[in-house]
Design brief:
115 residues, mainly alpha, Helix Hairpins, two-stranded antiparallel ribbon, 4 helices, 2 strands
Length: 115
Amino acid sequence: QRELSVIAGLATLDSEHVQVADSLEIPAKSASTVAGGVTIALPLADLVDLDVELARLRKELANAQKMADSTAARLANPGFVNNAPENVIAGARQQLAEWQAKQTQIEERLATLEG
């Protein structure tokens, strides 16, 4: 409670919009993170148009899935794997891992917003 005004100032919020508690129930449709043992939750319902944001994330997810599928298909092609230089194959594997990680991140954001 003592640091409430400092936290609010850093976040450029009025202290009436900041809640400090020993335990925090994270509201649905909120972004949250833990930093330095402190849980921070930001309710998004009043800040963004959720329908627009959900549509944007779904489109982004579809693109990530398409790119991951394309890269996986290339890596499953024996002609590519047998003929491409090792650094190209390694690059494709790295791309696949990155697209899969992006998919996971987007799915987590969607789950949070749909919550």
